[in-house]
Specification:
The chain is of the alpha/beta class. About 40% of the residues lie in helices and about 25% in strands. The chain has 2 domains: about 130 residues, 2-Layer Sandwich (Nucleotidyltransferase, domain 5); about 150 residues, ATPase, nucleotide binding domain (Nucleotidyltransferase, domain 5, 2-Layer Sandwich). InterPro entries: ATPase_NBD, ROK.
Length: about 300
């Protein structure tokens, strides 16, 4: 039986491709990571993705009949119905490009496509920290903020495929992503310390006990509590998942986030709704993308 799925995590800087067992999510062999080189022509990027898929199959002795299909989690925005990459600044040569169809032709396998944040949360809902939970609300915290809802093991895409796109929602005098993102952390830190530092540097300084860095993460946690409270009150999920590179700093922002959250959500979820950290680490992107091809994950 074709019980193997290949997943592709397509970002602006890297492409990560790996195979999983569809039954238990076990990663098969060693994933392949290559540079996206987003300046290349779209046809060359597709060929590079296709070659990474072929290499994973070769490395693991897989034939086409062994593979259920390929799931792709791509940075967006995307047109999910048509399988298009739309106006994506991270993939400038792929604007309005039919990625799903092109990759399907290149590898001669079924291909499913969805937003990378949706895929990360799907993977965690099916095989990760939120496994066996019916309604999973997930946030990816990194260069920007992503949000996704998975219900009964299926991504809730919404009427236009943009469910969870909260990044542009109003917050203070700007939008949520101004504060809740890597750049947001850097901005908060500069307001407090009056010097420039990347979010990684702010994290490292917090680890060293620097007061300005600790204050910056506390402020970040206060900001993060706002969209979490809105979404929890609206959806009432079984679990809330936090993932992405910024989530690594959760020991520094979680206390302030939880205080703000419990002050503004209903009493029962305040008592019962757990906040969990993503567990699939670097594999989360391609494992979640592979989950798009599981029959139970199709809407």
């Amino acid at each position: 039986m074709n019980n193997i799925i290949i997943g592709v995590d397509l970002g602006g800087t890297k492409i990560m491709t790996g195979a999983i067992d569809a039954a238990d999510g076990r990663v098969i062999g060693t994933p392949i990571k290559i540079a996206t080189q987003s300046h290349l022509p779209k046809e060359q990027i597709v060929e590079n993705i296709a070659q990474s898929i072929r290499q994973v199959m070769t490395d693991n002795g897989l034939q086409k009949q062994d593979v259920m299909g390929v799931g792709v989690g791509s940075t967006g925005p995307l047109d999910l119905d048509l399988g298009l990459v739309l106006d994506c600044p991270q993939l400038p040569t792929m604007q309005h490009f039919a990625l799903r169809e092109a990759l399907q032709q290149a590898v001669d396998l079924p291909v499913a496509l969805n937003n990378d944040a949706n895929c990360l949360v799907l993977g965690e809902a099916v095989f990760g920290a939120a496994r066996n939970k019916r309604v999973v609300l997930g946030f990816t915290l990194g260069t920007g903020i992503g949000c996704a809802l998975v219900v009964d093991g299926k991504i809730w895409n919404g009427a236009t495929g943009t469910a969870g796109e909260i990044w542009c929602s109003p917050h203070g005098t700007g939008i949520i992503e101004d504060a809740i993102s890597g750049q947001g952390v850097a901005k908060i830190y500069k307001q407090i310390a009056h010097v420039d530092a990347s979010s990684l540097e702010v994290y490292q300084r917090a680890q060293q006990g620097e007061r300005h860095a600790l204050d910056a993460w506390e402020t970040f946690g206060q900001h993060l509590a706002v969209p979490l409270a809105w979404c929890i009150n609206l959806i009432d999920p079984d679990v809330v998942l936090l993932g992405g590179s910024i989530a690594t700093a959760h020991p520094f922002f979680m206390p302030a986030m939880m205080r703000g959250l419990h002050a503004h959500i209903c009493p029962l979820p305040a008592q019962r709704t757990p906040i969990v950290m993503a567990s699939l680490a670097d594999n989360a992107g391609f494992v979640g993308a592979a989950c798009l091809m599981r029959p139970s994950s199709n809407p």
